[in-house]
Amino acid sequence: MIQDLKKLGFTHASSNYILTKEYIELILQEYNYDFESTEGISSSNVYDELKSPMNPRFLEPRPPIVTIMGHVDHGKTTILDYLRKSSIVSQEHGGITQHIGAFQCVAPISKKLITFLDTPGHAAFLKMRERGANITDIIVLVVSVEDSIMPQTLEAIKHAKNSGNELIVAITKIDRIPNLKSRAQSIEKVENSLIANEIELEKIGGDVQVVHISAKTGENMDQLEESIISLSDIMDLKAEKNEKTVCEGWVLESEVKKAVGNVATVLVKKGTMKKGDLLISGNSICKVRAMLNELGSQVSKASPSQAVEIVGWKSLPNAGDEVIQAKSESIAKKYVAKRQHLVQEENESITVEKMNDERAAQSEVNSLNKEEEESDEDHEQILTETGPKDVNFIVKADVSGSEEAIVQSIEHLGNDEVKSKIISSSVGIPTENDLKMAKITGSTILCFNLGNVPNEIINNKDKIAVKQFNVIYKLIEDVTETLTDNLKPIFEEKQVATVEIREIFEFKIKRNFIKIAGCKIVNGKVNRNSLVKILRGPEEEVIYKGKISSIKQGKETVQDVNKGNECGITLENDFEGYKAGDKLIVYESVKIPRFL
């Protein structure tokens, strides 16, 4: 068997080698066994069997789904604020949007419906922006006329290209440049930067519209609206609204609300979602108890391109998961169980591969160690290293999108010496179980956007560190600082004073004789308990390192002596090996700042 495995390409095959399910199927094929293959079925597509095929007869026009993307603080939320005539900018911590917000509004001029996704601009929410780009029809790329293209702008351009969505560029904050000539020059500079980044604008014969706007004053906002509507008309967006069609959608956000329980914001993609429907998302099942629109009002139905908050989930679904309707609870449970089994198999497969790699590496190490055991001490040191120190964290966030973004932002922080390790992450206020886990693992609990965390959690009896944050980059900075504090300290010696030992005196104390070094302070200041080292000869060999035990001037014991004065010095540990002509260096051990 092992010989055959090696012929098939399993170079590390041995009695200690674990076979994954996929490999077992390949081997069974090689041995001509008949079996039911599960090839192509995974946890990500297991629910596809529930979907209904597209029926062109049921296709009807639907509102466009528009994503606002761009760099932080370039005015994305202000644009949406103007369009829906509500103020959400002031509610955002630090002026940064930190969740995917979805809402449907009527365009002021054309009176047509548009669904907007407001994706966060902060760099930490890369994953959420990717998700926003992949479920949208039109991307409005926001670029400030003052700042031009910035790091998140480049990321948004990349995601827009990868998603294949249509693009409109909105050059914002033109009200900041009142001089029309200067404004035109700044706009041209931004447009040239966009062209340099392979955005095919209409001015060079491309199909990407550019609109110059000010959401603050409303200047040209009607042009932006008309650009979205005209582009959506050209795209001829349609979806099945028939109530018999299996409903599909996407979880944009999920959270646990007091007195309500698990809720999820779902963007409907296909079919009509109704109260009482059975839905599956990830490992979560929901019987829709209530649906709320962006105004908080209850609705009985939700059609394609509409975003609604759904109440009734048995467990909290993950942001970004697909939502599919099931005909009955028994079917829903059957498919969820099937998916859970597949997830378990996939995790086991990853674990098996990791174990095989570790065993193969250990085998090589043992072989190398056997060959060089007697001669190579450095190699032995490498073998005994335990790797970087883990600094443990438990993440608690307000919604699953934030939780996901935080974990992705901090789980890779660290270096060869220390690394961040996420023990667990979940939505909601820290629980007793979280505190127990933190105590066992020595973790710090990071709370994000949770409002007022109960005092008994913050000032817990086990003195577990519970930190609260509202802005994610502050959280990342704190984690980085914690990791830095866990780096092994490095100290350097800073010379404080130089002392010459000129003569050795003997004094009788009771029945014992002690030697005292008669010294002169050449420079600096010498204090009792100072760190010192004694240098001897032209090569300045160090013959002692320790502390000063006492300083005497005459018969009096003093605390310190300044430059130019003479004194008698004794050292700790009863050291008396000094000689006339030795040099005594007083120094401080200074901790050197370290960075990741």
TrEMBL record:
Q: Where is the stretch described as Disordered?
A: 353-380
**What biological-process GO terms show up in the record?**
mitochondrial translation
Molecular-function annotations in GO: GTP binding; GTPase activity; translation initiation factor activity
The residue ranges of the Tr-type G domain are 61-238
* CDD domains registered for this protein in UniProt: IF2_eIF5B, IF2_mtIF2_II, mtIF2_IVc
Which GO cellular component terms, listed alphabetically, does the Swiss-Prot or TrEMBL entry include? mitochondrion
Q: Which family does it belong to?
A: Belongs to the TRAFAC class translation factor GTPase superfamily. Classic translation factor GTPase family. IF-2 subfamily.
| Full protein name | Translation initiation factor IF-2, mitochondrial
**UniProt entry keywords in alphabetical sequence:** GTP-binding, Initiation factor, Mitochondrion, Nucleotide-binding, Protein biosynthesis, Transit peptide
Question: What PANTHER family does the annotation carry?
Answer: TRANSLATION INITIATION FACTOR IF-2, MITOCHONDRIAL, TRANSLATION INITIATION FACTOR IF-2-RELATED
**InterPro entries for this protein:** EF-G-like_DII, IF2_II, P-loop_NTPase, Small_GTP-bd, T_Tr_GTP-bd_dom, TF_IF2_bacterial-like, TIF_IF2, TIF_IF2_dom3
Chief place where the protein resides: mitochondrion
Which species is listed as the source?
A: Kluyveromyces dobzhanskii CBS 2104
Which PROSITE patterns does this one have?
G_TR_2
Functional note: One of the essential components for the initiation of protein synthesis. Protects formylmethionyl-tRNA from spontaneous hydrolysis and promotes its binding to the 30S ribosomal subunits. Also involved in the hydrolysis of GTP during the formation of the 70S ribosomal complex.
Its localization reads:
Mitochondrion
Where is coiled-coil annotated? none
Highest taxon in the source lineage? Eukaryota
